[in-house]
Write a structure and sequence with these properties.
304 residues, alpha/beta, Rossmann fold, eight-stranded mixed beta sheet, 9 helices, 11 strands, 20% strand, globular
């Protein structure tokens, strides 16, 4: 029996919220953390990450925001208020203490984490893996997204985004095309082709986050250039004299899949990962950044 089996876990299914709760071990109540998956959908690595958090005394809610029971089919026009409902629900649980939660996100979920921290109250810390300081559109390669539009909305209005289809002529047929086609990097091309005004509008106002912000990226990211995209958020925090602690950890040999620490590596750990970097480099980056993630969560949630 693995140690993960000791974490109390239950599914959350309400009219307006879908997810899985991982209750912190030890005497509670515990600080709460919202864990947000990427464009690949929920039910995978983010649950392993939440279990790790539970072992360290956090009660974590893996929130599913599309392609789950009762949720939209695609990452398309997702209201930021949905994550706000997750925060409200989490802080109402007897196993959770404090009025603020941490938000941990991966890839497009990292983008969501930065947006949630910038636009919603009761967020005490952000940890964003392989994220972007710019908002991007709903991915037209995804089933259910017929035309480019906002991936996110706030108070009923679209969250401004980089109009990739307008800026980039090359088309991508699916997620596999993004990671396998070295000649097509739509996100980089969009940033390079955008006007200053388009970049300004798409930039996430991360300086509004009321808590510490940790960004984690890989230099060999094959999905999108997360090291460059997250640097946009880091530079904005620099420029705005952000009062909380913040950092951007970049692992030159790692790729997009910097996720759960201390996962067992396959025998061929020097093999290239399909999302960039090597399996070994990704695992080392996940392990090295883990202690920083815990420190930032503690910093932002202690006595809040």
């Amino acid at each position: 029996m693995g140690s993960d089996s000791f974490v109390p876990t239950h599914d959350v299914r309400t009219d307006d919220l879908t997810g899985t709760l991982f209750q912190g071990l030890g005497a509670g109540p515990h600080p709460g953390v919202l864990v947000v998956h990427g464009s690949g959908g929920g039910g995978g690595y983010e649950r392993h990450y939440a279990r790790r958090l539970a072992h360290h005394g956090y009660t974590a809610l893996c929130v599913e925001y599309f392609d789950g029971p009762g949720r939209p089919d695609a990452l398309d026009g997702i209201p930021l208020s949905y994550f706000g409902r997750g925060i409200d629900w989490l802080t109402e649980q007897s196993a959770v203490g404090g009025n603020r939660v941490g938000v941990v996100g991966f890839s497009r979920g990292g983008e969501a984490a930065l947006l949630v921290g910038a636009h919603l109250d009761r967020v005490g810390a952000i940890v964003a893996y392989s994220a972007s300081g710019y908002a991007f559109p709903a991915p037209t390669w995804m089933d259910g997204v017929d035309s480019e539009g906002p991936a996110w909305t706030h108070d009923g209005d679209p969250v401004s985004y980089l109009p990739v289809d307008e800026l980039v002529a090359a088309e991508q047929d699916g997620f596999e095309d993004i990671v396998e086609n070295d000649d097509v990097d739509a996100s980089t091309l969009a940033v390079e082709s955008a006007t200053d005004e388009q970049l300004r509008q798409a930039a996430i106002p991360v300086e509004r986050v009321d808590g510490p912000v940790l960004l984690v990226s890989g230099g060999e990211d094959a999905v999108w250039p997360s090291a460059d995209l997250a640097a946009v958020a880091r530079e904005r925090l620099d420029d705005e004299d952000f009062s909380w602690a913040y950092d951007h950890l970049v692992y030159p040999d790692a790729g997009h899949a910097i996720r759960t620490p201390y996962r067992v590596e396959p025998d061929d750990s020097d093999a290239e990962h399909p999302y960039g970097g090597t399996v070994r480099a990704n695992a080392r980056a996940a392990a090295d950044s883990w202690q920083s993630a815990l420190s930032y969560l503690e910093m932002g949630l202690e006595d809040r």
